[in-house]
Amino acid sequence: MPFPHGSRWCPGTVVRTLEALHSKPRFPLEPALNAPPRLRHVDEGPAVLVVNTRSRSGRDAFEHARELLAEHGIPLLASHALTRPKRLRKVVEEAIAQGARRVLVGGGDGTISCAAQALMGRDVTLGVVPLGTGNDFARSLGIPDTLEAACDVIAGGYTARVDVGLVNGRPFLNAASLGLTTAIAKRLTQQLKQRAGKLAYPMAAAAEMRTLQPFHVRLQAEGRTLEVDALQLVVGNGRYHGAGNMVAPDATLDDRHFHVYAITAPSMADGGERTGLGHLQDVATLARVALGMRSGGHLEHESVVHLHASRLVVETDPPMEVNADGENVGMTPMRFEVAPAALRVYAPAPQ
């Protein structure tokens, strides 16, 4: 959508745009397009339930999930309600050592991603119970956002093999980003997410707009080099990031490559911080691009560049923090690789 000539845009415009996007249903009613192939396993062995009770819906969901799984005839070897998310990986690894072959995890994208780090490459199936603010991994799989529906998917027994992204060797499921998205993620405190729910993201965006600054990025991808001044860079393994915004409409969790896009800024050749008109131009660019993020139309915008790659090196000036699935994973430079079909996960039955 072209920027209206003579229109006046400000940070508030971006916030209202994001609020409108996030007021839509959090999950599509139809299954995810081009979903990974599914196989049905009637009984895969002992199951363990692990719920992050600090996730947005975790405290209320733990007991209900146990009841629903029992109703579906899924006996639990053990169940854990974690108030300290840092214990999650250790609990999952101990469950596997004790014979669990199904690890059912309740929480947001950060919780699911942490569990996946312990499960990738193993003969164990991950069951996703989406309880967070964004739930983008569940969205990419087509798993509905109700507890009942998520447990139905697990009971259905259909599984899919999905890729896992690696950033400097650390696994991630949805997307890694730097720039505006990373700054917003730092503001998404547990208290804000509990209080504001799906409006937490636009509220954090509003605060971050005041200090928005472009950065220079150099991408090296399979023999190609691209250099741009950017406001945001996203390296996507799945289809969604940022609570339902698309990385790319044709992205799938099993296509064995990343979908990368950058929102570019006007040249910074003049140097120094961007204030005044330059800052307003950057905000206007984000507002225009945001209009297409829900459908994937942002990739057609003149300020967006995008590419596919199974390996990627990202360098920036100045060094930038990198966020992967809601967690800070360090500073640039970063090396990205795809681990194909590295994780088995429950998914809705094929249509």
From TrEMBL:
It comes from Corallococcus coralloides (strain ATCC 25202 / DSM 2259 / NBRC 100086 / M2). Keywords: Kinase, Transferase. GO terms for cellular component: cytosol. Residues 42-171 form the DAGKc domain. Transmembrane segments: none annotated. One of its GO terms (biological process) is methylglyoxal biosynthetic process. SUPFAM superfamilies: NAD kinase/diacylglycerol kinase-like. This is Putative lipid kinase. One of its GO terms (molecular function) is kinase activity. Pfam families: DAGK_cat (PF00781), YegS_C (PF19279).
